[in-house]
Amino acid sequence: MIIIAVCDDESAETSYISGLTRKWAANRSISARFLEYSSAESFLFAYEDDKSANILLLDIQMGGMDGVSLARTIRKSNKTIQIIFVTGYMDYIADGYDVDALHYLLKPVTEEKLASVLDRAMDKLAYNERALYISRAGETELIPMHEIQCVEVRRNYVTVYAKGEGEGDGEYVLKKTLGEIEKELGGGFFRLGRSYIVNLRHIRKITKTDVHLMGGMVVPLPRRLYGEINKALIEQL
Questions:
Q1: 215 band by pLDDT with thresholds 50, 70 and 90
Q2: What is this structure's pTM?
Q3: How many Cα atoms are found within 13 Å in the side-chain-facing hemisphere of 16?
Q4: Please, where are the H alpha helices in 9-142?
Q5: In degrees rounded to 5, what are phi and psi of residue 48?
Q6: 13-47: string of b/e by CB count within 10 Å (b at 16+)?
Q7: What separation in angstroms does the CA of 184 have from each of 43, 66, 146?
Q8: Residues 31, 37, 146, 210, Cα dihedral to 10°
Q9: CA gap 7, 35 in Å, rounded
Q10: 145-189: per-residue pLDDT in tens?
Q11: Strand partners, 154
């Protein structure tokens, strides 16, 4: 079951968005619980006790705390909740990028557009739940796929570079081929020739010669793959 919250200080707008969201879930046979909040403060008060909300449809301009401030507070400890801004103003789009918002919906919101964005939110939630199983020294660890930045092969071993949310960065050395681990990673990753696989969601910049990752790593890019990785990145967005 997923939990979807709507936060807007206009009761009519809250009812409208909630109604569309319930219809979307029913049409897709998605089991969901729906929550409504009339202010950022009321959401935050409930959130302190229960952080299980998966999707937040959030107005920006509200009395008291605004939506962007609320999103920044949430992002300090929660990187996976899907935040969708719903507002009548275009002045805050840059702020949406700062808090890793999934999308920015302008009012009046149509059923079709909202459904499309919610579908994307579900895809991202599913992606975040996937994990790579690593067995070593008699123990099995689960590394969330969204934390993996890249994989590098050296002879008969691969190194998985991951960025955790609580315990910092990690490196995991495994005796596998790059092809074997590529199959385990699945979608959302791109293979750079014979030596690297990168997580498309961790790419900060692509040049003609390198791929710059958000964690600071720089991975060499074969020139013939420049067009392909750009296309893959656009399709991932």
A1: confident
A2: 0.64
A3: 14
A4: 11-27, 40-49, 67-75, 93-98, 111-129
A5: -60, -30
A6: bbebbbebbeebbeeeeeebeeebbbbbeebbeeb
A7: 38, 41, 13
A8: 130
A9: 9
A10: 888 999 999 988 999 999 864 444 588 899 999 999 999 998 889
A11: 157
Q: Which among 151, 212, 155 is positioned nearest to 221, based on CA atoms?
A: 212
CA atoms of 16 and 86, how far apart (whole Å): 12
Calculate the average pLDDT of the chain: 89
β-strand partners of 34? 4
- Judged by DSSP in three states, 62 sits in coil
- Token digits of residue 148: 């993996």
Q: Are 81 and 55 in contact (CB under 8 A)?
A: yes
Task: Match 């790579």 to its residue by tokens.
Answer: 132
Average pLDDT for 35-55: 95
From CA 85, how far away is CA 92, in angstroms rounded?
Answer: 10
DSSP state of 76: T
> Are the C-beta atoms of residues 33 and 1 closer than 8 Å to each other?
yes
Mean pLDDT computed over 199-203: 93
Tally of residues, the chain? 237
Running DSSP on this structure, what letter comes out for residue 65? S
**Tokens 């319930």, located at residue:** 22
How do beta strands 2-7 and 55-58 pair? Answer: parallel
